[in-house]
Amino acid sequence: MMKPSQDATQRPATDAVLVGGPDDLPEVARHASAGDETTIKVLHRGGYEHFEREEGPGGREAAGPPVYRWTMRTRIAE
């Protein structure tokens, strides 16, 4: 999960693109910051949308921002 702040020992955050998930996920939420995170969770409609980092084209090995693809949704326990 992304952390709101990073200490000096962590790699600086990079822009990431989030692909897939619900159609009503705001466009601003589809551009996140991530360091070496393999997963990103986005709070949305009383739950979390989960995204995992892709490998290959558009992912870790390619030039440009890393791409995270939607994998599942979890609800917040009440």
TrEMBL record:
Bias (Polar residues) occurs at 1-12
Q: Name one Pfam family in it.
A: DUF5988
Q: Which residue ranges are recorded for the region named Disordered? A: 1-24
Recorded protein name is DUF5988 family protein
